Amino acid sequence: VAAVDDTGIGAIAHNCPMLQKVNMSYCTRITDDSLKFLSTCQRLSELEHRGCPLVSSAGLAALAVGCRLISKLDIKKCNKIGDKG
Q1: Which one in 13, 39, 70, 73 has a CA-CA gap of 20 to 30 Å to 85?
Q2: pLDDT, average across residues 8-17
Q3: Which of 28, 35, 68 is nearest to 50 (CA)?
Q4: Could you read off the pLDDT of 14-58 as tens digits, one per residue?
């Protein structure tokens, strides 16, 4: 799992626009770019990305704009996500 990076998440988001659930927990190489890529998956309803230290409030904000159906979100141990996220 640690080998998954923004390039991989970008490819998944591009090729699976109807994606509904994603678990990227402890993928320590992903950044806000991954959440920006996933923001194009408008049917995304569940996202687990606990333990992703490079993800910040900016990435979460992009996701919130594009993915209005999110009903389950796990951001535990994502220390760069603050109140703005």
Answers
A1: 13
A2: 97
A3: 28
A4: 999 999 999 999 999 999 999 999 999 999 999 999 999 999 999
23: β partners = 48
Closest Cα partner for 45 from 80, 28, 21?
A: 21
Mean pLDDT of 65-82: 94
Assess contact for 16 and 40: CB atoms under 8 A.
no
| Domain spans, the chain | 6-74
Whether the CB-CB separation of 41 and 15 falls below 8 Å is answered with: no
Q: What is the CATH number of domain 6-74?
A: 3.80.10.10
